[in-house]
Specification:
By secondary structure, the protein is α+β, with helices and mostly antiparallel strands. The chain has a single domain, classed as Endonuclease/exonuclease/phosphatase (Deoxyribonuclease I, Chain A, 4-Layer Sandwich), CATH 3.60.10. The strands form 2 sheets. The chain has a 6-stranded mixed beta sheet. It has a 6-stranded mixed beta sheet with strand order 5-6-7-8-10-9. A hairpin with a 7-residue loop joins strand 6 and strand 7. Bound molecules: 2-acetamido-2-deoxy-beta-D-glucopyranose (4 copies). One 2-acetamido-2-deoxy-beta-D-glucopyranose binds next to loops. The site of one 2-acetamido-2-deoxy-beta-D-glucopyranose (NAG) has 4 residues, from helix 2.
């Protein structure tokens, strides 16, 4: 019996280690409707701080309902993110999209350059979406999926069924354009409550064609207010190769208010939506030692770039 206990201990250590490594691995892709993110809104320092903490947890974050024609709001957010440590965030924005001059919105992708390279961007124009998808392609040597396409949609609530169905046409367009069928759709589709009913699904090819997997379920609530309980915000992927590159059951609404113990007021200051997210697997066999994907912003500032990868970091308050 005495001979067995070291084995058991090793096994336990192995399990604990695996769980830790597992937890630190992967790359988060998020989608967040920012409900009118303007330069005026970004000048609220508390709001910007909360938002930066949310975006920091994502390796790629799609922001929707951004109204920032001269880029000042996004610039302020990027500066805040890059102040946390040496990991560099970048952004890519569409032009203002919409039918009325008073409601022109941009899609903005913010991404961690240590995790992903942007390798393509394309403004889709084939179907008359209110805000046609601004399609981007990312590459990473660190992720299990090496190259993939993201298709954002903040749908017109009054033609949500039609627009979600049109995403299939966007899929056909971009998969041929870039010879790549690893496509993820994400955004505030209004895919719930009165806008899209159970009965409407038969008219949406992303539902009827089983090549597409819906990673955020019907019963989740991506709205902040108690008065609404709707799965408006969704993430959908095409094909087995992409599905296999995603951590099972990682699709979720990110209730950052609960996570960071923030008041309802502070959460609503940013948006009346919560972000949704999924986690991409890192490439086998071992994840990169950075672990930044799952880390929160450090509470203090320090220069990680001068340290060897994987070192224990001691930060000092400035
Ligand atoms: C968006 O915010 C700006 C000020 O930042 C405000 O003037 C405008 O009315 C807001 N639009 C909507 C649709 O809430
Ligand atoms: C991004 O591209 C550069 C240049 O090709 C490459 O060295 C780097 O490894 C890429 N980054 C990732 C995360 O794949
Ligand atoms: C498209 O991609 C596949 C691999 O995914 C490759 O075998 C094929 O040669 C590519 N076609 C073109 C035209 O680049
Ligand atoms: C479903 O989508 C796939 C694309 O992966 C396509 O090849 C297939 O023809 C579609 N099936 C139907 C029934 O439309």
């Amino acid at each position: 019996m005495r001979g067995r206990s070291p084995d058991l201990r090793h096994l336990l250590l192995f399990i604990v280690f695996s769980v830790l490594v597992e937890g630190a691995s992967g790359f988060r892709v998020c989608s967040y409707n920012l409900q009118n993110f303007t330069a005026a809104k970004a000048s609220n320092r508390r709001m910007l701080h909360t938002l930066s903490r949310v975006v920091y947890r994502c390796d790629i974050c799609l922001l929707q309902h951004v109204v920032d024609p001269n880029g000042a709001a996004v610039k302020a957010l990027i500066a805040k993110l890059n102040a946390y440590d040496a990991s560099r965030f970048k952004s890519v924005s569409s032009k203002g999209l919409g039918k009325t001059p008073g409601d022109m919105q941009q899609y903005v992708f913010i991404y961690r350059t240590r995790s992903f390279n942007l390798t393509g961007q394309h403004q889709y124009e084939g179907r008359p979406f209110l805000r046609p998808p601004f399609v981007v392609r990312f590459q990473s040597s660190k992720a299990h999926i090496k190259e993939f396409i993201l298709v954002p949609l903040h749908s017109d609530q009054d033609q949500a069924v039609q627009e979600i169905d049109w995403l299939y046409d966007v899929f056909e367009d971009v998969s041929v354009r870039w010879n790549n069928t690893n496509v993820m759709f994400l955004g505030d589709f209004h895919a719930s409550c009165g806008y899209v009913t159970r009965d409407d699904r038969k008219n949406i090819r992303l539902y009827t064609n089983n090549s597409f997997s819906w990673l955020i379920g019907e019963t989740v609530d991506s709205t902040v207010k108690d008065s609404t309980n709707c799965a408006y915000d969704r993430i959908v992927v095409h094909g087995q190769p992409f599905l296999m590159a995603i951590e099972p059951y990682s699709g979720q609404v990110y209730n950052f208010g609960r996570f960071h113990k923030l008041s309802r007021t502070m959460v609503l200051e940013v948006s009346d939506h919560y972000p949704v997210m999924v986690q991409l697997k890192s490439s086998a066999p071992r994840p990169p030692p950075s672990g930044h994907a799952s880390a929160d912003p450090p509470r203090c500032l320090c220069d990680r770039s001068v340290l060897p990868a994987g070192s224990v970091i001691v930060c000092f308050k400035r």
